[in-house]
UniProtKB/TrEMBL annotation:
GO terms for molecular function: ATP binding; ATP hydrolysis activity. Pfam families: ABC_tran. Keywords: ATP-binding, Nucleotide-binding, Transport. This is Uncharacterized ABC transporter ATP-binding protein HI_1470. Belongs to the ABC transporter superfamily. Signal peptide: none annotated.
Length: 168
């Protein structure tokens, strides 16, 4: 039997005074499957992701995550001049806790995430000095370091090669 990682049932949502963006949406994300939401700009893909992540309150229906969710936003501007490794270590926050420093294992997992995307050489560079594509790879590494079973990307990285994209 296929394991469901994220279950959306009867989801409806609309902004006040506007028509509903979603009505009675049902969705199951299953282990080993890739799901894409392809649509023109401005048709509420980001709103749907916010509902899935719980950062926007539901008006009707339910979203149940049976695992951790990782998220890669379209844009990210850190408030300080963080190093790339520090950005990726932020993905370990739920494992580390609020008042503890990342462990050697957390550092190793963050470096492995960077290595998997050919970004380890940039670990000591300032995040703001990177190109847009490099920043996006760092944010993907941060999501990978979360060790979540579902990754939600708010925009497909345009620079991914065909071989990387063939899985989805």
């Amino acid at each position: 039997m296929v394991e469901t990682l994220l279950q959306v049932s009867n989801l409806s949502f609309g902004w006040p005074g506007q028509p509903k963006l979603f009505q009675q949406l049902d969705l199951q994300l299953q282990r080993g499957k890739c799901w894409r939401c392809l649509a023109p700009t401005g048709v509420a893909k980001s709103t749907l992701m916010q509902l899935l992540l719980g950062t926007l309150p539901l008006q009707q229906g339910s979203v149940v995550a049976h695992c951790g969710l990782g998220f890669v936003p379209q844009y990210f501007t850190p408030p300080f001049a963080y190093k790339v490794l520090d950005i990726v270590l932020m993905g370990r926050a739920r494992h580390v806790g609020l008042f503890r420093a990342p462990s050697a294992e957390d550092h190793q997992l963050a470096k492995q995430a960077l290595y998997s995307l050919d970004m380890l050489a940039f670990a000591d560079r300032e995040f703001g000095s990177l190109s847009g594509g490099q920043r996006q790879l760092v944010l993907i590494a941060r999501a990978l370091a979360m060790a979540c079973e579902v990754l939600i990307l708010d925009e497909r990285p345009r620079h991914w090669t065909y071989t990387i994209r063939t899985g989805c």
